[in-house]
TrEMBL record:
Residue stretches spanning the membrane: 12-33
Coiled-coil annotated residue ranges, if any: none
Family matches, as PANTHER family: AB HYDROLASE SUPERFAMILY PROTEIN C4A8.06C, STERYL ACETYL HYDROLASE MUG81-RELATED
Signal peptide (UniProt feature, chain positions): none
Protein name as it appears in the record: Alpha/beta-hydrolase
InterPro entries: AB_hydrolase_3, AB_hydrolase_fold, GDXG_lipolytic_enzyme
Keywords: Hydrolase, Membrane, Transmembrane, Transmembrane helix
Segments forming domain Alpha/beta hydrolase fold-3: 152-339
A Pfam family hit: Abhydrolase_3
GO molecular function: hydrolase activity
């Protein structure tokens, strides 16, 4: 929790003040500039236009010291949410100390293995947990018997860059899958893999590893799946660590994230390593994903039309549709930003978020077919 975070140095405090001033000035300038801004270059919502501009400026000027000081760990975010909602926290601990946190019953018919986003540099937020719990509650409200819930969620608390660069996250993703299959004795047919943003990117890294085992001895061998996963859900997945696509420029003033921050986070994640198919799925060679249907029965990819990552995700979806066929369902949501179920619904408190609705509809179709 906040008390466990390191103290901010004097230099850090000055830098944080500078970042805040830059954000406020940017927000005021955006508010002033609205009448002159090309409507095709900004969100339809004036509120989003100002808040996203303010947020981009703030994140652009944060140092790693600021990020570590301001953001609680994934573990403490989970504990804080549980305390606020009078829920007893329940966690599994892997042999290396990595934790995975439960929402719902371990005896549910289906377990969702969730990898939270955060640019590989930032922890899960309490808003992530609220998002997961909302959908979990909606699903289990339709269970024939309260004693036999339909769905539960297991959240991987993976390590963050730059302190822990790639392939640390892939190692942890592989370990939690081994734990789920071997220790919890859950067959893949009862598992859903889900991730938002960088968490979606990590899902792709794991799928790559399952299809083509990583060449490094430091990464555990992937488990052999006798049946496919029940489903895979990727919400605004970070599939390309490069920031060169046209939508990075075209949607620069529409989205809440920007290429400058993404480049910094991506470099920290790689830790000096080259991009490859196990850390950047978009660079995989032709035919890399053609056997995906052997490990996943259904793959859902959703992206907002205002995202800077739009072109990268659309290109990735096109490759998957070409190589994997009908198991892929890709959806573009007009006028919504990156990871809108978190950003627009949980943070900005918008009620009508189509990406959130599409995800819920996909989840219900998957669980009742």
């Amino acid at each position: 929790m906040k008390t466990s975070q390191p103290r901010l140095s004097i230099r850090g405090a000055i830098g944080l003040g500078y970042a805040a001033v830059c954000a406020i000035v940017t927000g005021l300038s955006y508010a002033t500039w609205i009448p002159f801004e090309n409507v095709s270059r900004r969100p339809k919502s004036t509120y989003k236009y100002i808040m996203f501009g303010l947020g981009r400026a703030f994140m652009r000027n944060l140092s790693r010291e600021h990020e570590v000081w301001a953001m609680p760990t994934t573990d403490s975010a989970y504990e804080t949410w549980c305390k606020k909602n009078a829920i007893v926290p329940r966690s599994d601990v892997l042999p290396d100390g990595t934790k995975a946190h439960w929402l719902g019953s371990k005896d549910a018919d289906t377990v969702m293995l969730f990898f939270p986003g955060g640019g590989y540099n930032h922890p899960m937020t309490t808003e992530h947990v609220s998002f997961l719990n909302e959908h979990l509650t909606q699903i289990n409200a339709k269970a024939p018997s309260p004693s036999r819930p339909i769905l539960s969620v297991l959240i991987l608390s993976y390590s963050l860059a730059p302190e822990h660069p790639y392939p640390r996250q892939l190692i942890q993703a592989t370990d939690i899958l081994h734990h789920t299959l071997s220790i919890l004795e859950l067959p893949p047919s009862r598992l859903i893999l889900c991730g938002d943003s960088a968490g979606g990117g990590l899902i792709f890294c794991l799928l790559s590893h399952l299809l083509h085992p990583h060449p490094s001895n430091c990464v555990p061998r992937p488990p052999k799946l006798n049946v496919p996963f029940k489903g895979v859900a990727l919400l605004s997945p970070w599939v390309n660590l490069a920031t060169t696509s046209d939508s990075m420029r075209r949607n620069a003033r529409k989205d809440g994230i920007e290429d400058i921050s993404l480049a910094r986070w991506g470099d920290a994640f790689l830790g000096g390593k080259e991009r490859d198919a196990w850390n950047c799925p978009s660079v995989a060679e032709s035919g890399w994903w053609k056997s995906l249907s052997a490990i996943a029965r259904n793959v859902f990819i959703v992206v907002g039309g205002d995202e800077v990552m739009l072109d990268d995700i659309n290109d990735m979806s096109a490759v998957l549709e070409s190589e994997c066929g009908d198991i892929i369902q890709s959806v573009v949501i007009p006028d919504e930003c990156h990871n809108s179920p978190l950003v627009e619904k949980q943070f900005l408190r918008f009620d009508d978020v189509a990406m959130d609705t599409e995800y819920q509809m996909w989840l219900e179709r998957l669980l009742w077919t």
